[in-house]
């Protein structure tokens, strides 16, 4: 219920966003008509269409996006015709002739003919196909959840609730606008001029959407910023993380549930497909991970160590690879990462999140410990407490009848990105570059999915970041369109990592890193040299900074010497 309320409030706040402006003329086009037969059907059609299109775009892949593009073209033609009919009654009569058999749906009807609710609903459908609201934190959260959890009634309901919130605020605007237009007609006798003005505004709105102004320029015009309000709403309703269970020595572990089905895996690496039934009699550790996640990478040395240490004593480790970014769904990318990271135990590709949902999991990494009877007896989320986790493994192996287990604890001795984090509680937070989850962006408003020339400010506050150069920012990443573009970040932490990918044609992208305007020298990461030089060759996490002395606040800058690079997310250690 709280999530539904959050979605509704997020939709209501959309009216304050500048990128709603091109839609307003379509809404006001019938402001002088009865609301029940015109405004209400139009807003319902708009909300339903937006919810459907947003659901398909989030879970349906590229085909849904392409189909919607064709729908947008048709909708722009329909609404352009509407604008022309409002401009001229003679033109309206001429245009309407071919459509008489269809109920004259694209033109205004005379008072004698009455209003058509179906006509208004059709206008709402066309508007819904064009509506591209600013993806603030709330809509970004909904779209991310939709992509993660797949198509479902809940997904569509949340998006429909968001659209209903927007429709509510538009309905209030429509009610006020209707009274204003009626007053103008009565007091000034200006009905025909009001009608023509609305027609002109509709055409301007169509042109703005056709040129991408609604998702480009207008999203950069700070008439009203709702991002801070939306983030406070999210923080207010977000539940606290589940407490970690504490395994006490000598006490039996509780039963938390049964091992869910593993049949949802789309592919297996290093193994034939495994099933819950075939694993009976074995102690199983299920590790949910994804290969660009720094927390997962830092826990891998321990997971690999446990797999090697106890594989001859009845332990089976299964890595369930649940992708966060689209490129992590590509099997060849995962196969390469598994090899590069030295993972030789079975890995299930969970591209559809079927296993993830079977465990009701919410975290990367997440470790679930299953006994020889197929029961979940313990879990751990995130990094740390590795000795306790190994104690759980030993306890379950002992229960299964294993004896003479090797002593001591796995000592990782990890290097590079796998080394444990600094533990600095003040280090910068994980920061996404794509607009769906971007925060603390300092180059103005983001132009969604449109090429734009960004400028980095001369100075940044702590945890602020900026783009500089010609970039196209998409939902989960930003692509550099011209050489010598930059990303600047004022960060705190020992390590700075950035998930990057080469150009879409696979060509490597050269880059150069500076810290406080100088070459990193001893503070360079494993993917850069002392002069700050490096190359993006594949889609993965790159360690760009490892400060040799401390975790102080610094200004990081990366310049890409070639176009095409794709940047996804910063993480810090």
From TrEMBL:
Q: Give the highest taxon in the source lineage.
A: Bacteria
The record's section on PROSITE patterns has:
THIOREDOXIN_2
Per the record, membrane topology reads: Multi-pass membrane protein
Q: Where in the cell is it found?
A: Cell membrane
Q: Which residues form the Thioredoxin domain?
A: 247-398
Q: What are its GO cellular component terms?
A: plasma membrane
Keywords from the named record? Cell membrane, Cytochrome c-type biogenesis, Membrane, Transmembrane, Transmembrane helix
Which InterPro entries has this protein been placed in? Cyt_c_assmbl_TM_dom, Redoxin, Thioredoxin-like_sf, Thioredoxin_10, Thioredoxin_domain, Thioredoxin_ResA/DsbE_sf
Q: Which GO terms describe its molecular function?
A: oxidoreductase activity
What are the TM regions of this chain, as residue ranges? Answer: 6-28, 40-65, 71-95, 116-139, 159-181
UniProt-listed GO biological process terms: cytochrome complex assembly
- Protein name (Swiss-Prot/TrEMBL): Cytochrome C biogenesis protein
Species this protein is from: Dyella jiangningensis
Q: What is the lineage of its organism?
A: Bacteria, Pseudomonadati, Pseudomonadota, Gammaproteobacteria, Lysobacterales
